[in-house]
Amino acid sequence: MKLKTLTDLNIYDEFVKNSPYNHYMKTSCWAKSKKDYTPIYLGFFKDEIMIGTALALKKSSISPYLYIPLGMCIDYTDTADLRKSLNLLKEFAKKEKVGFLKIDPNVIRVSRDIDGRQTDEINNEHITQIFIEEGFIHKGYGYAYNGSYTNRYTLIVDLSLSIDELKSNYSKARISAINRHKIIGVSTRLGTVEDIPYLMEFEKELSSTQGFKPHSYTFFKEIFNNFNDNARLYVTEVDLNKMIAGISDELNSKKYAKDLEARLSKEKELETAKALLQTSGSLLVIAAGLFLYYGEKSWDLYTYNRKTCNFIKPTDNLHYFAMNDLKNLGVKYYDMCGFSGSTDKKDPYYGLYSYKKSFNPSFIEMIGEFDYIINPLYYKTDKILKKGINKLRRKINSFIFKKN
Length: 404
What we know:
By secondary structure, the chain is an alpha+beta fold.
């Protein structure tokens, strides 16, 4: 096996697109957005035939390193080729004079049911062992938010079913919300670059409660432009006149005659809708989401909603529309992009897991992060710097952006 630097990005991206280990973070489109890194596109060859690829992002700093985001696109079931590819990457990293090489493959560790219990279908822990035998340090099978470069856990919806079957597998709360949206005038459309400000507005609302730095217009536009036809911006709106009429009809019917609590809730919704109509006009954008798709996979990068309209459940409509749209584009795997990995109700991020779970996804756990150390001093310096910088950044962002 030989390792070669690739200059034809069309060939490189086409291989990634058709690989079962395809991921948007392995594409040249994503690499272009990583301004702090120098991308190097690599191909693994046997008998002059390319059998794998890797995106190597080189960071030049006090402690330079190479990062292979989400690992290589290679046949991980061929253990001989896997070992050869790892050794070629180690030699390449040494020639690049970096302190260490980091790889976090999007290879499933073990199969689990939706509640996190291990099942018998998949076990790839032997691949972890191969990395260790080849001199890599494994970060371990820990909690998702442990400082890793990417999240080990995600939830993925299988889009191979019909859209009606997909919807029937949602939780009752999701189905009820989507059905009611027809009555109260909620709908989702495909957006354009002109709709990015909505995404920014809703992200800023969330940042004010959680204390993170919201992204700029340039950031979102660059992703949108780099991925071009492979980026989708979804915008969910409510027709407030239709909402007022719909709720009024519900209240005038006998639907809530025996449920005073529900009736009071709907009366409150009606008053909110009337107030919004006065301040915002008849058509109000209430959610937005930026998605990427590549080959048979899609990823929900950023989805936010207007907090004053949480009661409408706008992201339910957005996800339902997005699944239908992406399914029509040939997508089979709808990645809802990350959660803590914990299904414990006491987990601080349980709400995120619980919401995504309601769309009937599969629980996915990856094998994690591996480091091959070339220069121990560089490696130790990088860990110290990152820990200190990230801690300081969190404090600053919380102080600037979080509103108490």
